[in-house]
């Protein structure tokens, strides 16, 4: 029995469409900004896991090498007590990454639950959840963290991460609520509702997949805020100073007037680590934004050919109008 040529072409097109859909799904992983940001973040995660094993010295151990500049024995120099700064930076990476990721996960989960639920349900339940988001939106997070951190000094990194997560979800919930209000009236959602699909199935299989990039961007933004908050708390002396992190290093450098003594190696490595991690998270966030926004995705890459045969390069913010010369 002969198979029609149209059916053969359709069968061959299905795998190609699946491959193309998979490529579109992971397109943001191919951008230079995203790859660079992910590589740096993975590097810091590895250091956070194996930091205590590869640190050449105990970060709290004192020695006779007082306030020495970087050398072969102490790569980042030493403090006024002879403590190895390289070991402090390496060991302190775990606290920074733990607080950032834990707070990001907590805040993102709360933002998704409150934002998507209030946006889809609407009515009294939706307005109540929206009012709850507005209340948490105006709560000053950092002073609250300082008060609770001072009241419970033995809480550690987990307590700080939970406090930051519970006070920084409201903005993401507002964004997700607005996006859900836009999506719940789409044709495919109406079709799923007409076929008798349950509310939770529509949310999980019809709405959430279209909010993946927004959720990821909210998570990255919360991680940036959590990392900066943890370092700020340690720098002002609120969190436990016995647990090393980059803010603790800066705290001791500032309290011992490292800049006045010319001990630049005491605060420069920790400051560079903060700047590099913040840049990596920002690059990842920019990559997600470019994936979400078609205008940013094709920034400076789209080329069109005019009537004169010349190729014109399109730029973000400019809509080229290619005129056609009138023939006499």
From TrEMBL:
What UniProt keywords are attached to this protein's entry? Cell membrane, Membrane, Transmembrane, Transmembrane helix, Transport
Entry-linked SUPFAM superfamilies: MetI-like (SSF161098)
Q: Which residues form the ABC transmembrane type-1 domain?
A: 97-285
**One Pfam family from the record:** OppC_N
Q: Which GO terms describe its molecular function?
A: dipeptide transmembrane transporter activity
Bilayer topology reads: Multi-pass membrane protein
Tell me where the signal peptide lies. none
> Which subcellular locations apply to this protein?
Cell membrane
Q: Which InterPro entries match?
A: BP-dependent_transpt_permease (IPR050366), MetI-like (IPR000515), MetI-like_sf (IPR035906), OppC_N (IPR025966)
Major location (coarse): membrane
Q: Which GO terms describe its cellular component?
A: plasma membrane
Q: Tell me the superkingdom of the source.
A: Bacteria
| Entry's transmembrane regions | 34-55, 96-117, 129-152, 158-176, 211-244, 264-288
Residue spans making up a coiled coil are none
> What family classification does the UniProt entry report for this protein?
Belongs to the binding-protein-dependent transport system permease family.
- Record protein name field: Peptide ABC transporter permease
Q: Which organism is it from?
A: Amycolatopsis rifamycinica
